[in-house]
Amino acid sequence: GQNIDQPTEMTATEGAIVQINCTYQTSGFNGLFWYQQHAGEAPTFLSYNVLDGLEEKGRFSSFLSRSKGYSYLLLKELQMKDSASYLCAAMDSNYQLIWGAGTKLIIKP
Amino acid sequence: IAGITQAPTSQILAAGRRMTLRCTQDMRHNAMYWYRQDLGLGLRLIHYSNTAGTTGKGEVPDGYSVSRANTDDFPLTLASAVPSQTSVYFCASSENSGTDTQYFGPGTRLTVL
Question: Do the Cβ atoms of A43 and B104 come within 8 Å?
Fold first, then answer.
């Protein structure tokens, strides 16, 4: 079957760095998406990786290893506004997104 | 307006009633999607439309129907609501189907009693 695994919850300190891991198993693969979702709000797009390696976008970076079925989202210089859930989603051979349950990130001052 | 709007914001519905959730986008996107989000689960695709006039079934289509009469609107209908359809429903759109980024509406919180 198709499956996405990511930690349920993580805690980090303001100003620090945090890495949120995601492993996936899908029928075919057409890329890996990361979205941010604040409580009670819609998911918003953060990044898309389809090739192996690291993509950097400001304070956020995303990494993909296709051979390992693994991705991570790296958040640097954490701010209180980064408190949110981070959703990992892999696109399967039918171009449908398979979503993880999300990682709730708690930032402490 | 800019982006995607959904209506209503929230609704409490008696089991057995019919309900239509509305979704409108003004970005002229070809593809649109309906997801449900339940606590502890990932978003699950209900139905999708790659272009006006076509629709397809997602992972959890039973009990739901959609139509795509034009580019902008993609309503989701629950013909006879059941308590297991209590969820938060998100509509999304992308410029085209495939790997284009999906943009989400604000969601509708539906409670079926």
Answer: yes
